[in-house]
Amino acid sequence: MLEKTKFDQVFESLSRTIAGRTSRRGFIGKVGTALAGVALVPLLPVDRRGRVSRSAHAASGTREGWKPQDNDPSQCDYWRHCSIDGNICDCCGGSLTNCPPGTKLSPSSWVASCYNPGDKQSYLIAYRDCCGKNVCGRCGCLNTEGELPVYRPEFANDIIWCFGAEDDAMTYHCTISPIVGKA
Amino acid sequence: MLEKTKFDQVFESLSRTIAGRTSRRGFIGKVGTALAGVALVPLLPVDRRGRVSRSAHAASGTREGWKPQDNDPSQCDYWRHCSIDGNICDCCGGSLTNCPPGTKLSPSSWVASCYNPGDKQSYLIAYRDCCGKNVCGRCGCLNTEGELPVYRPEFANDIIWCFGAEDDAMTYHCTISPIVGKA
Amino acid sequence: MTHVHSTPELLAKYRAALLGGVASLSLLVAGAAYAQQGPSGAEVPKHLDEKATSQLEDDPQILSASTPDSRRIYITDPAHFAVATQTFTIDGNEGKVLSITDGGFLANPFAATDGSYFGLASTVYSRVSHGKRDDYIEVYDAKTHDVIADIDIPESRFLVGTYPWMTTVTPDNKSLLFYQFTPSPQVGLVDIENKKFVRMLDVPDCYHIFPTSNDTFFMHCRNGSMAKITFDKDGKVDVKQTEAFHSESEYLINTPAFSMKAGQIAWPTYEGKIFMIDVSSGEAKFGKHFDVFSDEEKADNWRTGGWLPVAYHRNSGQVYLLADQRAKWTHKYSSQFVFVHDAKTGKRIRKIELGRDIDSIAVSQDDKPQLYALSTGEKTLYILDAETGKELHKVPELGHGPQVIVAHDN
Amino acid sequence: MTHVHSTPELLAKYRAALLGGVASLSLLVAGAAYAQQGPSGAEVPKHLDEKATSQLEDDPQILSASTPDSRRIYITDPAHFAVATQTFTIDGNEGKVLSITDGGFLANPFAATDGSYFGLASTVYSRVSHGKRDDYIEVYDAKTHDVIADIDIPESRFLVGTYPWMTTVTPDNKSLLFYQFTPSPQVGLVDIENKKFVRMLDVPDCYHIFPTSNDTFFMHCRNGSMAKITFDKDGKVDVKQTEAFHSESEYLINTPAFSMKAGQIAWPTYEGKIFMIDVSSGEAKFGKHFDVFSDEEKADNWRTGGWLPVAYHRNSGQVYLLADQRAKWTHKYSSQFVFVHDAKTGKRIRKIELGRDIDSIAVSQDDKPQLYALSTGEKTLYILDAETGKELHKVPELGHGPQVIVAHDN
What we know:
Chains A, B: Belongs to the aromatic amine dehydrogenase light chain family. The complex is a heterotetramer, with two copies of chain A (about 180 residues) and two copies of chain C (about 400 residues). Chain A is mainly beta. Chain A is built from two helices and eight strands; from the N terminus they run H-H-E-E-E-E-E-E-E-E. Chain A folds into two domains: about 5-40; about 50-180, Electron Transport Ethylamine Dehydrogenase. Chain C is globular. Chains in contact: A-C, A-D, B-C, B-D, C-D.
């Protein structure tokens, strides 16, 4: 899991220092509307060192740690959900990778590297929130594999990741777990 | 419990027919603001025949029926709560007869006749809602002793009885159970 | 109030103008120009989005729901009088939640008879539970669940535990009728097709709205009669009231079953007598009523109980009543049994033991009907075979206290 | 939007004006006059209120809460990212809920250091969860709980799981500071005293707000440093950044403890190292840090865990850490133990076994402190003697998922 992938080429140089500079911009035009609907998804700066998820733990949601399964995407311990915080869209009218009817799909995401017990590979998951509705409430799920504090926001799952969604939708409904690629 | 009281003199002639006439008024000035804060509380037309609550049943909230106690006003089976639907203000920062800080006291009410197992008398209770906040959520309570359908609204507890509260507050927070007098 | 300003002082002036003050045109225009700037809180963070973009292996989309059939239902969760409520779109065939729609305080669901849209009559406040009240009708496409109309109405919706038939579409699906309790009884007429509120119609001291044609509906009145209300384009209302059809001590529940397509109302009392009101001719006929319970069952304390304790299956003419053995005055508590009777003969066809506490029932209108049994306490919908009572699906986690089931094919 | 209109067409015009269209003065004035009429939905029903009024034997009033002391706390329930949230005012002495205050999406509580007021930075939408966003600061009297200020702010609050110290008053209680994440990091300055938003202040890529004087606050930055931010009346911002005080692999939790009165920040890592940051001099000093767990305990997998896992008692200089034996990367799950250490020496003073899963802790600042232990799952606050761990009170039914404890005497 330490071999180089195409993602390493993208993210390799990124570390916590990249955004440490002072940002003195004023209010600026919205980037979100320009991004919505395009195929290129803005992934945030990623530094995955040391945070590839492990495979040998008990059920999720407990102090026992993470033990993923690979057969039921509606369950919190499905492997792709290793760093989700919220509700699984599959239970809310969506699916593992699609948003429920009537929601707005966020183009921005936080990321985690999750271990698939099926093929014993790790994948980079870009969690994308489905927005513009009150919280779904079904299949609540908190996993924190490789979850970093808010000062490393690209890995932080407390944040409402609805940035750039259509209609400026910023309310949280549920989260999908699409794959970026192998980690 | 069938002897005449002062309330009988007020309510005796009231029956379902009183408001059966056609009401063809247009939009009118607000009565509520005129009523708020006055000592005279508008009680709604009351016909108590046959709906004096009984004393010999099991715990409230079940098909077993109503069995009131007279020692803990924060419990749903406290005798005065015999026809409450909502939350008991005593658990929300209020008390048996006072609204919580920050709410608005409704001058209007639905009524029920409740049996006090302490003195073995029945009393007319004018349930008044404390309004202007989201539902309290603590000490939820549904009792339906003598509770009548919506076409007899003065006895109907599904209605938000915030009519006339200050600031037109119409959201439901909790309910107090003041006594009108002996029934 | 608007999401685009950064000068609250200016905004305060516009608000004052809106609420009764005075504002100059130039101020308004200046504000409008300003409004194009300022943050939305929804931009992709500039300090984070520059370094990396990448294509996903997956291609996320927003789904569309299946085309509604007679097993499409909507479950509304008033969340015990909460200011935020949810309505779950459910496909009975699969026992699957298709989408969730948000409503405000005591939002009242409705659905087009052809299934093309559904909606909510709703009330919100500018500060969650206080501040300015805003009543509105929001209409959603039944497949995409996108908002297709947002119609402002007067702030006078009747705020009451959610009853079906206190808000309803007309048979042609072009209009909506909603009830007003105060300051005086009125029914609001909303033009769904043209997305505008039309007017309030004065009505007697009556409740519920049962449309029989596009300009006529029936109501049930305090004195026990039915009122036939006819209105014309100018707001003129004609009222024709029947004699009382039930006695003062026969308490009719708040949530009768109504088949708009058949023109039949099935209306139980607390004690299990069912009044069948036939409005199919355009007049109210009270020929049929029957007792669900035998004298022996009555002696054993069998009574109606639940939030929506009655359902009507149109083609078979069967009435379903949720009931149990219970004390008097427990008419809103859950029950564990459903009694199925023939509405014409009043005879019992079968009795279904649910095996759990159920608060609301409904049936699908197809020929092999599903029985929907909703448990408010468990927050779970059980979908049963209406013939056998066999459980077909179970749909859990339906909010905080789901109570209401609405179908379009009624 | 307004509760007083009956002509939605007119209103639509005002809205268009507000949002960027054009409206004439006469229209506005006409609308204002019209606005005095129409129903509010809040009138006493005319068909019911005429027949009977009567004096009650009881004389209902609206209560006022007791004067806050150091055991007055506020518990906020974000209800798992819901659009409607609650903040419970609790008197620790009695273990009693004094009042409940409503907030919107991810409302962030704050309290005046003298206890005179508390408030929420909040976000609402015109249609429950969609439509127009409105961010605002609402301030409440700590006794009456009446709204004493409602201040409009730009729609750019950082919407994130509720962290204390992402929104805070200044030491003089006259101003409020709130965090903006996007489009670029800024801190909003609100004049509480004069009830108006002042301006946004540009800040580096840093997080949290720890005020040390009325024009100075510290933040913690992405690169592991602290930034000292000083601002003047004209919005000029001066930034002074320290060297990084922790390594990249030492992950500091999102919810440190800060005593504004003592100028001390206690900031644990996932692994139980605690950084003490002394800002009492007006500069950030990093002299003290210590490991809560011995090497043996570390080997036994003792780690920090919870939502608010750290508390600081000002006079005694004691740090409380919520921890348990746990796998790596379980830093947000509940714990059953509290470790109490002397912040100066780093030495352990005692260890409290809670006997249940607790997510958030706080201590009162009096000399016989109470330990507040909040269980999100049980929705219950346990009030314990901070010395002995003995349970003094239990306060259940605190919403849907209470997570946050705020005290004014910090």
